[in-house]
Amino acid sequence: MVGGTRFYERKEIKDILAYLKLLINPNESVSLERIKKLGKNRFEKFKKLYEEIKDRLETYSTNEIIEKLFQNVDYLKLYDVEDVDDFSRLENIKELKSVALSYPKLMDFLEQVALVESEYSEHEKKTKGHSRQLVLMTLHQAKGLEFDHVFIVGVEEGLLPHSRSIDDQFQLEEERRLFYVGITRAKKTLYITNTRKRFIFGSQGYSTPSRFISDEQTSY
């Protein structure tokens, strides 16, 4: 992602991965130092949890282990759901749990994470300095830039506009302007996509095309 942070490099994701790695290897120094910085009380609670489940770790799925972490070390209390940035972090955590559903065994999950990160790093090395490459960015990061071809994906109710903005007229208009920024980045072709069904946060549901699509169509 250009100008952004890779998913597995985000603070909240690295925190949770550090906990999970320590359950497998309690002597992993990098992860150990990371969770110590989250507070002495949380660290003591984690040590207690480790002693309780270390001998039967394989009997739990990855998501069950993550839930046990949340219940026992109070990690989620670090974030305020009313704060915009914290809410985004909590959504990232939900998305991590969605990924974990595909890897019930903790070791398989951690190996997959390591593989994704390794492949991304290798790709970065190969494409560094190349002009012909896919550029992935948020709508905010696209301000002031132009591209021959632009794809805006996930243009659905609940995503764009976000579910938290639908009942707030000011936020709704802000997201409408943001969408306009996106569609005006294209010099030659613009593709706007949405799905009929979307698997998100561990469950599948039907999607509705964003109201912004019909709004723009009636504007021309």
Automatic annotation (TrEMBL):
Gene Ontology molecular function: 3'-5' DNA helicase activity; ATP binding; DNA binding; hydrolase activity
An annotated GO cellular component: cytosol
InterPro entries: DNA_helicase_UvrD-like_C, DNA_helicase_UvrD/REP, P-loop_NTPase
Superkingdom: Bacteria
Keywords associated with the record: ATP-binding, Helicase, Hydrolase, Nucleotide-binding
Domain UvrD-like helicase C-terminal residue range list: 1-144
Keyword hit for Cell membrane: no
GO BP, sorted A to Z: recombinational repair
UniProt keyword ATP-binding, yes or no: yes
Pfam families referenced in this protein's UniProt entry, alphabetically: UvrD_C (PF13361)
Stated name of the protein: ATP-dependent DNA helicase
Organism: Candidatus Roizmanbacteria bacterium GW2011_GWA2_34_18
